[in-house]
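Supplementary Methods S3. Complex input for the iron/sulfur cluster-bound model.
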Amino acid sequence: METKKNGRAPVSQKPHRIEKPEHPEYIGGSVKIQINEKELTVPLGTTILEACRDNHIHVPTLCHHDDLCIAGVCRVCVVEVENMHALQASCAFPITAPIKINTATPMVRKARKHIIDLLLSEHYGECYSCFRNNNCELQTLAKEYGVDHYNFGHIEKPKYKIDNSSYSVVRDMDKCVLCKRCIRTCIDLQEVGVLEAIGRGDETHIGTFLDKQLSDVICINCGQCINRCPTGALRANDPRDEIWEAIDNPKKHVVIQTAPSPRAAIGEEFGLEAGRSMTGELNTALRRIGFSKVFDTNFTADLTIMEEGTELILRLYKALVKGEDADKVPQFTSCSPGWVKYLEHFYPEYIDNLSTAKSPQQMFGAVIKTFYAQEANIDPADIVTVAVMPCSAKKFECNRSEMDDSGFKDVDYGLTTRELAQMIKETGIHLPELPKSEFDNPFGEASGAGLIFGATGGVMEAALRTVIELVTGGKVEDLFENANITPVRGFEGIRYVELPITEVGEVPEMYKKYFDSWDWLKGATLKVAVAHGTANAKKVMEDIKAGGKFSECHFIEFMGCPGGCIGGGGQPIPTNATIRAKRAEAIYAEDEGLPIRKSHENPHIGYIYEKFLTDGPCGDKSHKLLHTTYTKRGEYIA
Amino acid sequence: MEKLKERNGKVLFSNYTLGEGVRKALSLSRDDILFEVKDSKLKGRGGAGFPVSTKWMLAAAAIADEKYVICNADEGEPGTFKDRVLLVEYPELVFEGMIIAGYAIGAKNGIVYLRGEYEYIRKSLEDFLVQMRKDNLLGKNICGKEGFDFDIKIFLGSAAYICGEETALIESLEGHRGEARNRPPYPVNTGYDGMPTSVNNVETFACVPHIIINGGEWYNNFGTKKSSGTKLFSVSGDCEKPDVYEWEWGITINELLEKVGAKNTKAVQVGGASGICVPKSEFDRKIAYEDIPTGGSIIIFNENRDMLKVLKNFMEFFVEESCGQCTPCRIGNTKLLEGVEMIENEEYTFAYLNKLKDLGKTMQVASKCGLGQSSPNSFLSILENFKDEIFYHEAGVENGN
Ligand SMILES: Cc1cc2nc3c(=O)[nH]c(=O)nc-3n(C[C@H](O)[C@H](O)[C@H](O)COP(=O)(O)O)c2cc1C
Ligand code: SF4
Ligand code: SF4
Ligand code: SF4
Ligand code: SF4
Ligand code: FES
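Predicted complex, serialized as structure tokens:
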């Protein structure tokens, strides 16, 4: 008999939830229950955990994560339900009948304590030498239940070898509590599926296909699993030691670029609420740490818009006017290295649709070791470039062998928001108390368009702000209030927008060598889409394969991580929907307050094309330095 | 089908003509069948003893495009081999029971989840199904009943004990790792492929044709008030006649031991590794849902057996067979096994063993599925019932810890 192939999800519970009714207020839509003797009415299908949380009744959890499907495996969240002989996992129990729940009986308390004791008995790791010290859900549980000794003994030797084969993710399975969040993240959220529980009984562990090391499987380095791991079992590959060494070396000129998302989140590492932007304070901190120059990645985000936007226009011109390379449209964004690797593995036949423009991080690396080196009169061999990124895949990206167009390794180290926060703390700085300062020249400030790259839809919005103005000669503000292109914003997994081009303007000087009128675009409708999280990317790609509406698009923004970079795998832990929304708000608010909000209006961009990339966007010089190639990987690693 | 030997029993091991049960069933309405099964008070024979009619009525009431009848032939409980006897010698009863279930709940598809180690009987079962299709006992418009289609497929299991647990079985059928699901929702609602599914034991199905032919009331002539009918017992261990027997519910352990020629019996493990270990002093207890329930495994230990070794054996089984999904079972069983080893090496304290007993009780209530919930049973019952032997080496002097 054939086994069913209903998706690849290895997780038991994915399709087996009880959906909540659309109208809980209708008859039969709600149930009356009691929690700890308190009468409550909840919509049918609400889990006991949700009911408790909504009513401020604390229930400890470990395997549950708001972003993920139900697992019900750790059993820390058990509660008593009247007339049921066994305790029930509150996270996994949908309420469909009027039940009486008790969250704090002796049996419940004892069971939870036992479970924590059991987990600790097998947990090999020391909090003081663990990056999750003070931000670890297992540690928190141990404290909550007052663990002061090991009730059931304690493992003396590690069972596993640490896997640090990957540029991005380090796996230390001795700290794993088998909550399966990483598995669920990788398959349900990201549709990659390189992780799975292997073995039975006491040999159960999280592994990859044939237990290969992570660098040898098709992991896309997104780090989403790190962000959801409750313990230190997963962490990013940390370059702090090397960076300190470079900083301490007087011969090295260490420059740092900071991506838009870390500044919107790093405050969380210092106890601030999510959504407080720290741009100016961060600049000061970076100088105090010892970086020689502090640059804004948003500058190369602006540069990316110029290159990628021009590339889009040229692709459209070729396809629509000359009838050439029509299959290279839609153009896909290429600034998310998690997404790029996903495409290389899962849809290698579409690599020609990827914009050849490098990501802002890589553009900056190349520009620093050429243009900046030249302007500042420093030997590029002595320059060390560090990139603060919300992302673990950026670590892989900067190590891609083709990323050396400056003649050197364009970006030496990718540093996550978390790791940078650590470096700041090591310097003895409390970030929120610092005075603000500006970015360094010659790149100076960037536009708001570069800034919003951090949120899903941001690259699209930035590109549209520029493309609309270049093509129509008018102002974005005339079409969208305050230049906020809200239809592409938000957190819906996939968004699709159509923009009719009714008017065209003068062709700008830099495009005159390609064509002298925009007439070929007049009356056309620009179709764009946005997808974030590779599970959503997969849906779009499958639609394109099937010739659906997304195959008709001209330009699609793909981000590897849910929420875009603000939800990246290098961001502070925890990350969830509320936190992602707040970080995005911070970015959009900062954008609104900036004097320049369009990439093509950034004077420093004008300067670099004038002084350095003299043949303009997508010219030979920029092609050599700012564009790249991809690999059809398929199921292969290289 | 050829019998391995002559067997005698009041229900299952009695005479039966192929097709009789299905023909009778198809002459009745669906509701009649459900009520006949209800009157019989038949309970699941796979171990949990859930009323069959309740399960079927829920599945029958569910509205869905497809429904499934699954026969649980994973028979993985140590000391159980009665399902194999039924499949080899009385497959007609099992398959007809499935067909009747399909008719009653409105399912077109039957699946037999056959224990991996039973691969050798697959061929004969497939041949038997071919014959049944020829006889129009399977296929379309069965026995001329317009609109009733039903067929049975055989799926070879993956040889893991946990796959006998019904939701893990379904996961395994769907091609996933054998792990128990969260409940609710239950399989009768959201089972195989998300569709309403009734999973029943081989023996449960085998009872059904007899009940349909003779009526639910008739079935109550056997057994006790609360445990109707007969039960198959797989008897093994220290006795003269280990075998599969059909006896009425309510048989005492003493009676049972007598029938199989067991002498100098010290202990009887009822219900396999996940069951309980009954000491001599309790041999007058009844085997019935209301006293000592069982899926049918009876393992007899005589006075020469070392109960600690017996226990160790069981615990090793669970440490290995836990699916590893939930904390209490995955780590808990390891801790209990360590405890047994401590006793073996005389490195224990009673204080620690008491902690482990406490842990065992947590495992019974906090584990995700029946495996973890029942795995501490033998630990708790053997340490309690055989403490003199285990801790004091019978005389109670050497080991005054
Ligand atoms: C660990 C475990 C193993 C089980 N193994 C079997 C089995 O091998 N055969 C079986 O019929 N039921 C087994 N069961 C019981 C099933 O989950 C389920 O209750 C049964 O198939 C229902 O059928 P019944 O109602 O006819 O007994 C097992 C349960 C557990 C928890
Ligand atoms: S994972 Fe948590 S409990 Fe374990 S060593 Fe790290 S901080 Fe401590
Ligand atoms: S980094 Fe992303 S792709 Fe790699 S294992 Fe983690 S979730 Fe999966
Ligand atoms: S690696 Fe982390 S997320 Fe994955 S199962 Fe282990 S503890 Fe959970
Ligand atoms: S109780 Fe054991 S077998 Fe059942 S789900 Fe938990 S670990 Fe798996
Ligand atoms: S949080 Fe509910 S079982 Fe883990």
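The pocket of iron/sulfur cluster (ligand 3) is lined by residues A 169, 185-186, 190, 192, 194-195, 219-225 (CB under 6 Å). Residues 327-344 of chain B form the longest helix (18 residues).
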